[in-house]
From TrEMBL:
Keywords: Hydrolase, Magnesium, Nucleotide-binding. GO terms for biological process: nucleotide metabolic process. Residues 8-111 form the HIT domain. Pfam families: HIT. A motif (Histidine triad motif) lies at residues 96-100. It catalyses: adenosine 5'-phosphoramidate + H2O = NH4(+) + AMP. It comes from the Eukaryota. InterPro entries: HINT (IPR039384), Histidine_triad_CS (IPR019808), Histidine_triad_HIT (IPR001310), HIT-like (IPR011146), HIT-like_sf (IPR036265). This is Adenosine 5'-monophosphoramidase HNT1.
């Protein structure tokens, strides 16, 4: 069985698995998460199957953030997170690119985030900056 055939999000996009669809276009599909972190938690996926952001063509990505923005506005959420994970270490559970729009109505509902920042090392940042820019 191909990865696409086994992919739960591809099955949702094709209609093989029912969903609470919020939006659909030629390239994008959006629906409510059935295991929400808060009321209004939605997923926006490109119809193009790819595991990581770098696997998705730019034209398939161009519409995603405007759709996330529409859903955030329609949800009425004053505070919310937009999340997109790539790979198991980054907490990606489904191997199909997807963006979460997660309302944060209070301290206990929605996404909880730790931010383990490291001390600033300007010399290391200068080298990293040069390395990344050289590959773009």
């Amino acid at each position: 069985m191909s990865k696409m055939a086994a992919c739960i999000f591809c099955k949702i996009v094709k209609g093989d698995i029912p969903s609470f669809k919020l939006f659909e276009s030629e390239r994008i599909f959006a629906f409510l998460d059935i295991q929400p972190l808060s009321k209004g938690h939605a997923l926006v996926v490109p119809k193009h199957h790819g595991s990581k952001l770098t696997d998705i063509p730019d034209d398939a990505l161009a519409e995603i953030l405007p759709v996330v923005k529409k859903i955030a506005a329609a949800s009425g959420a004053e505070n919310y997170n937009v999340l997109q994970n790539n790979g198991r270490l980054a907490h990606q559970e489904v191997d199909h690119v997807h963006f979460h729009m997660i309302p944060k109505p209070n301290e206990t509902e929605g996404l909880g985030i730790g931010w383990p920042a490291t001390p600033t090392d300007m010399e290391a940042l200068k080298k990293l900056h040069a390395d990344i820019k050289a590959k773009m």
